[in-house]
Here is the input.
Amino acid sequence: MRFELFIATRYLRAKRRQAFIGIITGISVAGVAAGVASLVVALAINNGFRQDLQQRLLGSTSHISLQRIADDGIKDWPTVMERLSKQPHVVAAAPAIFEQVLISSGPRAHGAILKGMIPRYERKVGDLLNSVKEGSAAPLEDAPIGNAHVGAGDSPALPGVTPNDSPDSLAGVAQRVAAMPPIVLGKDMADNLGARVGDPVLVTSPQGELTPFGMAPKYNRFRVVGIFNSGFFDYDSGWAFTRLSDAQKLFGLGDLISVIEFKVDDIYQAAEISHHLEDAAGKGFMATNWEEQNKALFHALRLERLVTFITIGLIVFVAALNILISLIMMVMEKTKDIAVLMSMGTRRAQVRNLFIAQGVLIGVIGTAIGLVLGYAISYAGGHYHVISLSPEVYSIDYVPFAPRVIDGVSVALVAVGVSFVATLYPSWSAARILPAEALRYE
Here is the structure.
């Protein structure tokens, strides 16, 4: 053991007449431990919410979206989609149409984004259709061509209903409602509209058609077949799904689509893969990835993480002040001992290193205790879900903990670094003691 470290450990074990210094030293260790543990737990919670948000976000949207720069629609999309699906790192692809519409039910109306898609492709790139809690998304499946096929404008026969029934009868009304194209609404939107499974809603497109009386909006009645609940307010309050063919008919697009969505095997390489897809698609196409589409959200999470680190890190700063005070008092208490050591040949650098080692030891011990305590709390909180939340507000019923090793390393480096800085002045003061002046009256 080095000379300085040996003396520093002896000074930390205060005797009875130095109990006050020992108490301050214990408070310093406890302060560092509390600050480190608080930082580990706070960063684990922040990381847990970020991971949960990212997982649900990626489950609700595609990783990459490809569309025309001129927004004139993608022609011959089956050929384009099949060709791009064979590109490296592409796992699945799906066609889609996104348009702004107005959905109304009785006197209530709500603006929404209507997504026209093909369910068998949609389920490969996103999980929103799997989050249908009421009703079912099965009616969105395109029926096979033949006797079993029912088009959007056909009038299928219902059990117990014959074509001769009066259109004003309840059976006739039920027959017309059943013939409406299906639509799936978000939970919050359905609540705002007062719509339930089986109810008809009116979908109005702002892209109208020219009539002798001017431009008239296009509209069609849809039947609510399902209500999804993704946990994201933006989706649950502003999105609706229908079949691709029904959306094309409503918007008068023919066989055009507005976007091709892709799922890739590495979400963190989505930006690079999107550039390759742009090049493969040819001139006039542009691709955006999930990070670009949600840049503001993840920027807010990073900012919150930084603010949390700085705010709770003040606890470590206060503990460093305690280390500073305890070392200053230790220097005052041990002035004669320091003078004796220096008169026996101890160099000033060794005296300085002695008190630096003492302060760093306090920081290291407190950091070690804080790391163990912080990771233990994070593990217990994540494993046993000890902190409950209201799922109606936060979309999850417990606080997620996701501690990372890199966070512990960063916190430990900061804590030990702050502890080292707190030792500089006391160690410098101790090294400036003059043995002759300190021992003059002894």
